[in-house]
Amino acid sequence: MVLQRALFLAVLLAAAGADALPAALQNGKRSAPSWEQIAHLSFEGIEKNPVRLRNGVREKGPTATGGAGHPRIELLPDFRLTGDLDGDGTEEAAVLLSSLPGGSGTFLYLAVAAWRGPAAENITTLLLGDRIQVYSGRIIAGRIELDVVQAGPGDPACCPSQTAMRRWTMARTGLQEEPAKVRGTLSLQDLGRQEWQLTRLAQEETIPSDLRITLRVDGNRLSGSGGCNRYSAPVESAAAGQISVGSMTVTQMSCGETIDRFEGRFRKALQHARRFAFLAGKLTLTYPTNGGTVQTLVFAPLKKTDP
Fold first, then answer.
1. Which of 13, 95, 212, 255 has most Cβ atoms within 10 angstroms of its Cβ?
2. Mapping DSSP to helix (H, G, I), strand (E, B) and coil, where does residue 273 land?
């Protein structure tokens, strides 16, 4: 067994070079391609020609004849599922890509990447739909499972409300979808399935590494930590995806001017939140600003093992 593993390593090193081993080895087998490796691949099935990414985004190209230009295509960060989809004993990686063609739609794609010799490749890509929201996902027993919010009967294009679990298995021709399991209508209960930690304030503004801001929804009440003080408030939802936060109760500690100011900005944004949605496993809450624009709070799932 040791000799076989040594020969396996030698073949890989000979093919790729000692400084270019394409993936970490786990028990003598390559692990699935990393997000960083996938972020530079070419993807079939999105446009007529393969789409080449650079750092997770499609390179800017010339304007198409008679069109409005190339759409923005992006590999969604922090979402990567791994597992053996084809039964060969080696893990593949499933990721999500979004395409904004320039109109009102946002099209979501599910793609699979795998090692083919010394290089990672996109082996299949399929369209999930327009404005599909992904709550969470996993690979179990060779099947990709995604918990989604999608358009239900009578939903306007802007506002999907149907919650469902969608599943795919790998076939020779690519991913084959099984019948979806419809669960119901999007509600505050879907927020309560998970505790959340704030990762971005106003979309592009990251949270200081030493500040932990959390959110939990339990029935018709939300609560959490603002980084220093605990807060709680009643919460309602008049329709799918809508949210209204009532008057807050907050503890009265001070943790320094910088933290106090940041905490105050978070509570003000949360107080004015109007809509919630899910983006590649993250929770987003949108709120209006004084300038008339709309900003977004972004939360990541808080793992059960987190202190």
1. 95
2. coil
Question: pTM score, two decimals?
Answer: 0.84
Decide if 299 contacts 282 (C-beta within 8 A). Answer: yes
Q: Where are the beta strands (DSSP E) in 49-106?
A: 51-54, 57-58, 72-75, 81-83, 92-100
In the structure, what pLDDT confidence band is assigned to residue 209 with cuts at 50, 70 and 90? confident
% helix, strand, coil for the chain, step of 5: 10, 45, 45
Separation of alpha carbons 84 and 170, rounded Å: 10
**Is residue 186 within 8 Å of 161, Cβ to Cβ?**
yes
Q: How many CB atoms lie within 10 A of CB 254?
A: 10
Residue 71 near residue 60 (C-beta atoms within 8 A): no
Chain segment 103-131, per-residue pLDDT in tens: 678 999 999 999 999 999 999 999 999 99
Fold of 189-301: Lipocalin (2.40.128)
In 10 A of CB 80, how many CB atoms? 20
What pLDDT is attached to residue 6? 39
Q: Residue 259: count other Cβ atoms within 10 Å of its Cβ.
A: 18
Tokens (6 digits) for 178:
């099984």
Kindly list the domain boundaries of the chain, sorted by start residue.
Answer: 2-7+22-61+69-184, 189-301
Q: What is the pLDDT of residue 70?
A: 55
